[in-house]
User: What shape does this take?
Amino acid sequence: MSIGVAVLGSTGSIGRSTLQVLARQRERFRVVAITGHSNRDLLAQQAAEWKPAFVGLVNGGKGDEGRGKGTACLVEAATHPDVTIVVNGIVGAAGLEATLAALRAGKRVALANKETLVMAGELVAQAAREGGGEIVPVDSEHSAVLQCLAGRRTELARLILTASGGPFRTWGPERVSRATVAEALKHPTWTMGKKITVDSATLVNKALEVIEAHFLFTVPYEQVDVVIHPQSVIHGFVEFVDGSVLAQVGFPTMELPILYALTYPERVPDQGVRRFDPVAAGTLTFEAVQPDRFPAYVTGREAARVGGTAPARFNAANEVAVQLFLDERITFGRIAEIIDRVTEDARHDGDANSLDAVLAADTEARRLAREAACS
Assistant: This one.
């Protein structure tokens, strides 16, 4: 019998890639639930093709027959009784409650929504323990780590996550500060949604991934390193206690980590991705992260060190600042400035020991970020 899948954010980049994977694996999986943010037309096309039992539209839902509306539809889709695997491709903090609900309901969460673990890693781990659910990462870097570990977590010594460096890797700080939206969205190796593409340009995405790796693999922050790898061919390294290092290699595509998250720990035949060719890959290079070029990354690592609600504030401030930049209301250089100002306040906060505390910190950080943008 085929396995039921819910795709949260089916109209976004991860969601569309997931449906492409599922289209090649129809004998193994069936789509039970899909949700979109606001792209009603694409959601309707997907519903017509896949005929899921549940369809949800978060923003703009009019209560159409058979269609959930508002953020509650995310939880409804994630906990549908016929769903075994939930692919969470929601962008930002909006994906948190659906992840918690799915884990408490004993589902596997194929997690592309890194903000979930950044905001509330301890709560997510608790929900998984209590409900019997599990998280399998979809991010290419964390999927790479999972594949390299292959059950040998007790032998892990260090993780090295790779970052492309984004479109501004070779630019000076002053020129980067004046970058336009169009320039920020020209990622050199990946095709992604606008928010994560900007996060790649600021390297905020890598700070988020460091925090995510900490919770996914129970590894101290000081044992998670990041290097710039412009070709985006090696997605992560795992160093073991004896000094051996394994790496996962492949041309940039999200479809392979999505497929692995769906079938983990097994691998199944699939012909949908470009096969690796070391000659075509060419020369692979690595560089250290330059703090003056990526100040928001430095702020994110400090938020991780501080803990408590600091990561939630960091994430919320970034979401607000990135949207303001995409709306052309602030310059690119102000993203890091706003994040730093908001996250600095988090050092006086308490523990992120409840969902209410996390959401309160998120709300406060968003208010402070909007105020900082106007000053």
Observations:
- The chain has a mean pLDDT of 93.
